[in-house]
C-alpha cells in the first residue's frame, strides 16, 4: 500500500516540475505568450495539487483503519444527514430519501459509516452522465433484526465483465479514480458484521444494498467487555 501511494504521489510530480520549468523559460524568452501560458499552467498545477490532496485523503482513510471504534451509532440519522449534504451539492440530480430519519442504531464505527455512504453516493453521482436527468433514491428499512439500506441510481450501470472486480482494491474505470471507495466500504461493512451487494443493468442503473445487524444492548455490553 505504501508503495502504491508513493507511486501515485510521484506520478504528478514530474509534470508539475516540468510545468514550472517551462513557465520560467517562457517568462525569460517570450514575453508575449507569457500571460496565456501563465493562466493555463497555473490551472494545471492547481488540478495536480487537488489530485495529490485527494490521494493523501484516501491514504489517511486507510491509515485510520486499525483505529476502528465501535459504539452505538444512529445509522438513520447519519444516512439522512449525508443524503441532505449530497442534495445540497448536486442540485441537478433528483436525490430522494425514504425511511425514518433517526433512531435506527447499529454497533459500528460512526466515521467509517460516513465514509461508506459518501463513497456509494459519490459513485452514484459519477455514474450519471451529463445530459441525462439524474435520479438517486436512498431507502432505509428495518426487517426483523436487520437494517437494509439501498442506493439506486439511474446511471450508466456496471458492465457484466467487470462486476466481479469492483470491490477489488485499485480497480477503477475512472481516469481520476483510485479504485478504493468500494473496497474500503466492503471491509468497513463486513467489520460491522454486515454485507454489501449490488445489482446493475447497463444504461439503466445500479442498486447497492447494505445489510447491517440492528444494535442490541447485549452486543454493546459485549463489545465493551473486550
Ligand atoms: N453506481 C455505480 N455505477 C456504475 N459503476 C459503478 C458504480 N459504483 C461503482 N462503479 C464502478 O466500480 C468501480 C470501482 O468503484 P470504487 O468506488 O471502488 O472506485 P472509483 O470510484 O473508481 O475510485 P475512488 O472511489 O477511489 O475515487 C468504478 O470505477 C466504477 O467502474
Ligand atoms: Mg468511488
From TrEMBL:
Pfam entry (one): HATPase_c
Source organism (scientific name): bioreactor metagenome
Protein name per its UniProtKB record: Signal transduction histidine-protein kinase AtoS
SMART domains (alphabetical): HATPase_c, HisKA
Keyword Nucleotide-binding attached: yes
Keyword field contains Thylakoid: no
Histidine kinase domain boundaries: 4-216
EC number: 2.7.13.3
Upper classification of the organism: unclassified sequences, metagenomes, ecological metagenomes
Gene Ontology MF terms in the entry: ATP binding; phosphorelay sensor kinase activity
Keywords: ATP-binding, Kinase, Nucleotide-binding, Phosphoprotein, Transferase, Two-component regulatory system
Enzyme category, top tier: transferase
Amino acid at each position: 500500500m505504501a508503495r502504491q501511494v508513493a507511486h501515485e504521489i510521484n506520478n504528478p510530480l514530474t509534470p508539475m516540475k516540468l510545468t514550472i520549468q517551462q513557465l520560467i523559460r517562457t517568462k525569460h524568452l517570450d514575453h508575449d505568450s507569457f500571460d496565456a501560458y501563465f493562466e493555463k499552467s497555473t490551472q494545471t498545477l492547481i488540478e495536480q495539487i487537488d489530485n495529490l490532496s485527494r490521494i493523501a485523503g484516501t491514504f489517511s482513510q486507510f491509515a485510520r483503519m486499525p483505529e476502528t471504534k465501535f459504539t452505538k451509532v444512529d445509522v438513520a440519522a447519519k444516512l439522512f444527514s449525508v443524503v441532505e449534504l449530497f442534495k445540497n451539492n448536486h442540485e441537478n440530480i433528483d436525490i430522494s430519501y425514504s425511511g425514518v430519519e433517526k433512531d435506527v442504531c447499529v454497533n459500528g464505527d460512526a466515521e467509517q459509516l460516513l465514509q461508506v455512504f459518501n463513497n456509494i453516493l459519490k459513485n452514484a453521482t459519477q455514474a450519471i452522465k451529463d445530459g441525462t436527468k439524474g435520479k438517486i433514491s436512498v431507502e432505509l428499512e428495518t426487517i426483523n433484526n436487520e437494517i437494509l439500506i439501498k442506493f439506486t441510481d439511474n446511471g450508466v450501470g456496471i458492465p457484466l465483465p467487470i462486476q466481479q472486480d469492483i470491490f477489488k482494491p485499485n480497480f477503477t474505470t475512472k481516469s481520476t479514480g483510485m479504485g478504493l471507495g468500494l473496497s474500503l466500504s466492503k471491509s468497513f461493512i463486513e467489520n460491522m458484521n454486515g454485507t454489501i451487494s449490488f445489482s446493475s443493468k447497463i444504461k439503466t442503473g445500479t442498486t447497492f444494498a447494505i445489510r447491517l445487524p440492528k444494535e442490541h444492548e447485549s452486543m454493546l455490553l459485549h463489545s465493551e467487555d473486550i
